[in-house]
Amino acid sequence: MGLNVIRMGRCVNEPDEPSRIIGPVGKQLHHLAKDWSELQGTGAIVGVYHALGREKLDVHQVTVEQIVSKGFDSFRVSAMVFEHMTYGPFAQLAITYGCTGPFWTLEANELAAPLALWTAWHDLQKKRCDLAIIGAYRRKTPTAWMLLVSQDDTSTLEPALIHTNGHTHPTTEHLHELNQRLGGDCALLTPTAKDHDTNGFDALYQSLTLAQAGKATAIWRCTPDGRGTLLGFRRRDVGTLGAN
Amino acid sequence: MRVAISGCAFASPFGSDFDTFWQGLCQGPMPVATWHSEPNFPGLGCRLAALPGADHQEAPGERTLALSIDLGRQALASAGLIQAPRGTGLALGSAWMEGDILGVPPRPPGRSLLPAIASTLGLTGPITGTPIACASSNYALAWAYDRLRAGDCQYMLAGGVDVAGPMAIGGYLYLDVMTDTVPRPFAVNQDGFLLSEGGAFFLLEPLEQARAAGRRVWGEIVGTGTGHDASHPTRTAPDGRGLAFAMRRALQEAGLSPDAIDYLNAHSPGTAANDAGEAAAIHAVFGSYRVPVSSTKGSHGHAQGGANALEALACLLALRHQVAPPTLHVDQVAEALGLDVIVVPRPMVLQHVLSLASCMGGANAAVIFARGDKWG
């Protein structure tokens, strides 16, 4: 049983979506999800894992400006939740697509995407949900990212995560431990400047894509204050399954 | 792996003394709620059960930071630790964290809480915030529990805090969910919640590790679950589906049947919008078994993201005293809910207690606690 990456999507700018979908981020998430057949009334229990970073303050700033200029009465009640609370667009997504499984917002800045995926993987292994949506957004860009994953026997992709807090880069020991957990060597992807703008999602996509193609890779994410995670993926050959 | 709570510290409108808090839960009176006016936003205010000595001239984010660091240190100290062991993680449940930045002119964003707390306390393990509104602290406990069970670390500080700020107050005023009198969860005449402040931090670690170190155990977390209503942006689902899902997952994880839950600490803040859905969820999970239920928000008020942390403490103290705390201020229970609502302290054998949390937006989290050996 491994991690099965079913869908990956990224939406840039604000798509034209129905007015019942509130806010630019809500529209982006809806735009990504509406064509994902796995979410359309299949009966699957879907968990939602929102990777949150400092963009929450952009959201709050918009709220502040509206309150100061127009007062609290300028909000619709639903807009209070959907547009102006950190988890709002993902709550809207859950409501729109009937995602009644686990629901998480994990705030961890640059580490948020790896931690959200790790949390989702844990929940999938525990059978707390059948499918997991992992997503993030940036309001200023604006851009939204979403992944849809499952755990099933058609996949041999395995993740492993190491915390590297307090280090300016992953050490040989960290990489050795990661390789041990993955059961083989993996290549560390070099982060690009763009990676730092996405709560880790662009790098996560890159690593997953390569790993699915058979090239074991890891990404290392860090925050300016020294928190760090090393997340790796390796596709096992079917013949090695059960070896551990 | 069994997960122990081996350290605890809290701040509440009752103060930070465990006996005083427990007495307040059981007998009241509830903390004095005074009219609070936001210093930088003329005309904005509400009745508030504030923390003793609170300085509301200070930005909410800075107050939350100072409180979190203080509670983190105290929680470690209560476990006999003068500093965080290497690799200790942090799960912080705060609805607002540093985000309540309303002012005229708008305040600049405050310092990031997570790195500031982590660096001050020397935390180097898994670190995250779970800003999921009024369910934040239960989410933090659930995430910490999972990290320990997954072997990601050996210690987690987990809990949550929130303080009053202008965005919180303005938002709740606009939603018209605050009472002008006292909170009456599950009562026929409930008319809203009382905003309060505070929260609690807990040190979690593997039970065997705590025992080997000679630390007394306040209680165990034996199961957690989360779920979403997928129903409405601001109201609880009428059938309580998300809360029922969360409870079932928590029971499944704990390996318990519903009738093994001796007492249920409900989310109910004192709003009609909550109680029908929460009651439906309880009925869906517990069936014919009438689990004793109370909401301690009737006494300590609604500390937003910190509320569940105070309720976790209420659960631990209930296990300690073998008394289920009541819902204060309830003259007449809303019988239509069909719940066994505790309105006076109820001595009983308590082995497992369940704490529920729901929030605007539809997220729910359930945590099951078991009795520890701290008090023999």
Structure write-up:
The complex is a heterodimer of chains A (244) and B (376). By secondary structure, chain A is α/β, with parallel strands linked by helices. Chain A has 2 domains: 2-152, Peroxisomal Thiolase, Chain A, domain 1 (3-Layer(aba) Sandwich), CATH 3.40.47; 157-238. In chain A, 32% of the residues lie in helices and 26% in strands. Chain A is built from 7 helices and 9 strands. In chain A, the strands form 2 sheets. Chain A has a 5-stranded mixed beta sheet, with helices on both faces. In chain A, strands 6-9-8-7 form a 4-stranded mixed beta sheet, with helices on both faces. In chain A, a hairpin with a 5-residue loop joins strand 8 and strand 9 (228-235). The longest helix of chain A has 16 residues, at 55-70. Chain A is globular and about 60 Å long. Chain A starts with a strand and ends in a 9-residue tail after the last strand. By secondary structure, chain B is an alpha/beta fold. Chain B has a single domain, classed as 3-Layer(aba) Sandwich (Peroxisomal Thiolase, Chain A, domain 1), CATH 3.40.47. Chain B has 10 helices and 16 strands. In chain B, the strands form 3 sheets. Chain B has an 11-stranded mixed beta sheet with strand order 5-4-6-8-1-9-16-15-10-11-13, with helices on both faces. In chain B, strands 2-3-7 form a 3-stranded mixed beta sheet. Chain B has a two-stranded antiparallel sheet with strand order 12-14. In chain B, helix 3 (113-121) links the parallel strand 4 (89-93) and strand 5. In chain B, helix 2 runs parallel beside helix 3 (113-121), helix 4 (136-149) crosses helix 10 (307-321) and helix 7 crosses helix 8. The longest helix of chain B is centred in the N-terminal third of the chain and has 19 residues, at 60-78. Chains A and B meet through helix 2, helix 3, helix 4, strand 3 and helix 5 of A and helix 3, strand 5, helix 4, helix 5 and strand 9 of B.
